[in-house]
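Running low. Got one?
___
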Amino acid sequence: MNSAIVHIPEREKYPKISPANNVDLLGTRYKVLGTPKRYNKPMALEEYKRKRRFEATPEPPPEISTKTGHRFVVQKHRASRLHYDFRLELDGVLKSWAVPKGPSLDPADKRLAMHVEDHPVSYFDFEGNIPPDNYGAGSVMVWDVGVWAALSSTPVDGKYVPTTDDEARQMLAKGDLKFRLAGKRLKGDFALVKMKGRRAGSKGNEWLLIKKHDAYEAADYDIDQYDSSVLSDRSMDEIAGDEASAEWRSRPAGRGKLKAAWLADAVAKLEQKKAAEKAASKTSARKASSAKGKKPGSAKPAKSTKPAPTPIASVDAEKKTKKPRLKSA
């Protein structure tokens, strides 16, 4: 367990395993203080709203969450070009970056990450298909989920330790955000660093996503080894072929009995969808079977693909007509 005690505001605390001792997923002890201020403005999702026609896309509506949290999600997005969307929950929205090659656990990889518009928190478990002629048209997979904690801008005893959301905002504004991930596939310390140099045609939204050296680093990391959803276990091709994925449904209310209700609800939603599709398939099969039983004489016997046997008489005749071989001199 980390010996450092991190003072953070009430409701801004990093998700814990044990409420009794305030220890989080990565073993950091917390002491909870006060109540946080609200930093969100109604304009936070205006760009997200402007780019989409919600009557034609299954993506969730632009609603700012009234609850604070520290979840993260990585969505594999097969649009005009395959890329990964990296999102951190902060101030009731998902701060978002498009990463063309995807995140890496190899510190030698410095992944380009394009800072894009904030997304609603309800986008966290969006998995499905965005129809053609819509912004971002293509298939979306939930590639990884977990929680995150901002790390101090300066080390304490040679190590970066979890810090407050206030400092996270300051680091974002400065263009150097250090953070720790505890996901299913991504773990350990990372940094998002804004590129300073402005190239020709640059929009000024270029960042680098970099893995820090720690116990979770992996040399020559291959992101393609994971090609399934952490929520539904489906591949991109399976998601692309799922017509039911073209409709977004809001996540049901938390059940309160599970340690990770937000994840259980997302999985339950997908299981309900699968059950409905299975029931519909069985109904169609029963109808087809019933229709076949009503007209027993209408079905034509299948033609045999085997060749007809050759009559014995014709074989004997063929043997008689064959010319005898000439003996060599």
Observations:
- The chain has two domains: 38-250, 255-287.
- The radius of gyration is 29 Å.
- The first helix runs from residue 46 to 50.
